[in-house]
Amino acid sequence: MTTGTPTIPDEVVATVADAGWITVFSGAGMSADSGVPTFRDAQTGLWENFDPATIASPEAWDADPALVWGWYHWRAHLVRDARPNAGHLALAELSSVGAGDDERALMVVTQNVDDLHERAGTPVLSHLHGSLFAPRCSVCDTPYDGPDADSAVEPEGSKHDPRLTPPTCAVCGGAVRPGIVWFGEHLPADAWERAENAFRGADVVLVVGTSGIVYPAASLPERAAASGVPVIEINPEPSALTEVATHSIRAGAATALPALVDAIRRRG
Ligand SMILES: NC(=O)c1ccc[n+]([C@@H]2O[C@H](COP(=O)([O-])OP(=O)(O)OC[C@H]3O[C@@H](n4cnc5c(N)ncnc54)[C@H](O)[C@@H]3O)[C@@H](O)[C@H]2O)c1
Ligand SMILES: [Zn+2]
């Protein structure tokens, strides 16, 4: 977590305040201040011996569905207990603050599989990598909303095996899988198309809390930058998108986004 109020450059404040259409591109760092661990931080407790990048794959599902289901069940449980942070809440204000009667369009394209943007009051246009809360049949794709979809799992540190047998589909009896886009899988065509449209129309792009190394998602801000759209990065650390960013604000989402909203409000 980053402390202290970061200074937002006047040029950034003016660019965002004058934008009619803002597109937000968020990653795991957006939710870090809500206590949802990034992959790097997730190897704790029950899961210390498992590599999340390996679990998030079709190969892992084929080899050990109960391990994969147990992992996402645990992630969903963490997210249920988490709350949107001040960054999510500030984004929810961004469409109206200082905009007079002409509300800005605010399009959120996220790589996150949590629902913290939505719970802060910002609809998500595109969940590029799926959702923890949309399991479906691995055979026939029927959405699953049965009782096991989000019930609690053993707390972290339990001696129990983290595996959890996935429920079965009511239609075909197939195993229910998480509604996540795993490494090596194609992005859902509709989510991708909505994301492309969001970037195509943007006056400014805010890149928040992503390392910018997962493709094709990261190509969206890259292409926007190449076509001359200002790209503003919010991330305490440099990332792969820093070089295409017009400005980088080196602070966490939960401090930088409220500071940006306050600066726009003061500008009037
Ligand atoms: N919350 C979630 O839904 C979640 C969590 C972990 C991983 N994932 C998945 O893992 C993949 C990893 O890519 P990624 O780029 O989203 O995450 P990443 O873990 O690769 O990168 C996280 C980035 O956030 C930055 N960061 C850390 N704390 C921050 C803060 N307080 N404010 C702003 N930035 C902060 C880090 O410097 C880093 O650049 C994604 O495809 C995503 O689907 C999702
Ligand atoms: Zn089925």
From TrEMBL:
This protein's UniProt keywords: Cytoplasm, Metal-binding, NAD, Transferase, Zinc
Annotated cofactor note: Binds 1 zinc ion per subunit.
Cofactor dependence: Zn(2+)
UniProt record similarity statement: Belongs to the sirtuin family. Class III subfamily.
UniProt remark on domains: 2 residues (Tyr-72 and Arg-75) present in a large hydrophobic pocket are probably involved in substrate specificity. They are important for desuccinylation activity, but dispensable for deacetylation activity.
Role this protein plays: NAD-dependent lysine deacetylase and desuccinylase that specifically removes acetyl and succinyl groups on target proteins. Modulates the activities of several proteins which are inactive in their acylated form.
Name of the protein in its database record: NAD-dependent protein deacylase
Organism name: Gordonia desulfuricans
Source species taxonomy: Bacteria, Bacillati, Actinomycetota, Actinomycetes, Mycobacteriales
Gene: cobB
